[in-house]
Every structure is written in structure tokens, then in C-alpha cells.
Amino acid sequence: MNHAGIDEDKQHEVLYKLMDDIKNYSREKTPAENSSLALLKTYELIGNYDPYKAAKLRSNDLALGMYPKLRQMMDAAEDKLDCALRIAVAGNVIDLGINRDFDISEALRHSMGIGFTINHYEEFKNKISAVQKIMIIGDNSGEIVFDKVLAEYLKTLGKDVVYVVKEKPILNDATMEDAVYTGIDKVSRVITNGSGYLGTSLQTVSEQFLEEFRNSDVVLAKGQANYESLENEDISRGKVFFLLRAKCERVAESLGVKLLDMVLMSG
User: Fold this and answer.
1) Domains of the chain (ranges, CATH numbers)
2) Which of 29, 76, 121, 261 is deepest in the core (most CB within 10 A)?
3) What is the pLDDT of residues 50-92, one digit of tens each?
4) What global pTM score does this model have?
């Protein structure tokens, strides 16, 4: 609501109305699902269905400004797949739903220097070497530029890459508008998941997305919300790898890592 310029009186009015909804949320649903319900209801109450629109554009421009440096890092890397994954996870720090302020340069240094706390890199590398179709489920605007570097490298390996964005705006998650703006549509096929929920809620996604998911040999799911919504799904078994930074204590606890650790983990 601060992003949307809503005054304090209106904010309290909206919060009181939300309490009536939140008390009825199911504890069986994932945090991503319940958070989506609260956010979408807020958008409805304030009459603004994309309050992060300007912030998303700034994130995209910030990341695009770093793109030449990311390409230089790739050109200099001995293990280019490892470098591309480290770049992609560094971009996951751009999350306006959790961190209003972020230092993407510091995240990049951390990723390149310290790397992954959980690192199933060899498994991922071996898996993609033997397959053709790879799906990347994106997360945030801005971050999409860092994913673009990974998609470009996978394309040089002859892989068929499909990149997934949200159908509708929620927080600062990437949509088709972000995909076109950042040019990732030039290096991979881009589809939406048919949903405006955080993560990948299988109850809300489109049949087209599910068909693409089933037909993909490997799925790389970016960010916490995708981890929250896909970790326990049967459809993920033996196919999904999670690439994220643990940005809240509960997710870190679930993964068995420390807050802000980076993770590449098979599902």
C-alpha cells in the first residue's frame, strides 16, 4: 500500500477488512497461496492491481545496466554453467515483497565467492547433459535479466529452453511485459503459467503450463515461493531443481541452511 501511495487512514481500513478474510485461510495451504489471497484482496480494496509497476521497471533497468558485466563474467568463466547458475541465484535478491532495499552487486560477490550452501550442481549438470527440454520458472522482475544469462548459455548447448512468467501482476514477480522488456523472449520461448499467484500453485495454473511442465525433462524453479509451492508436489519428483536464496527464517529452517544462504537443490 505504501508503494501504491495509499494514505494511512485507508491503509488501516484495508487491514481491518483483510483480518476478516485472513482468519478463514486454510493452514493446509502453502504460505505462497495464502499470501497471494491477501495480496489480491488488497489490490481489489485499493483499486490498484499492479502497485509495483514502477518499481519493477526500475529493477529491470538496474539489471539491464549490469548485463554487460554479467556477460563479461560468463566470457571469463572456466565452468560456464556453474557461473550462469551463480549469476541467476544472485538475481534472486531482487525481491520487493521481502526486502525493500537490496544490494545486487554485493549479492553477486557473495554468489561468486561463497556460492551454494546446498549444492547439487553435479546432479544438475549430469541431468541436463542427457536431456533436451529445460523449463526455467522465473521469479522477480530485474532477476529475469540474470536468468537471461543462464538461458543464453543453455541455448548454446542446443537446449530447448522455455521460460515461465506470471499471467497477472503480483508483488514484483515477472510478467510477459518484463520478459519482452528485458529481451529474454529473444533467447528462449516464453510462456505464462496462467496464474497471478505467488510461486506455482498447481490449482491455479493453466493446462498449457501443466502440459509444458510435464513435457520438460528438467525444471529449474527460481525463488522461495516456487520452493514453497512445489517442494511437496508429486509432479516435481525427479524433475525439479530449486534455485533460491533463503530470505526468511522459516524457509531457511525448512532447508536446513542459514538466513541468506544460496541453494541449488534437487526436488
Assistant:
1) 1-22+30-51 (no CATH), 53-266 (3.40.50.10880)
2) 261
3) 999 999 999 999 899 999 999 999 999 999 999 999 999 988 8
4) 0.94
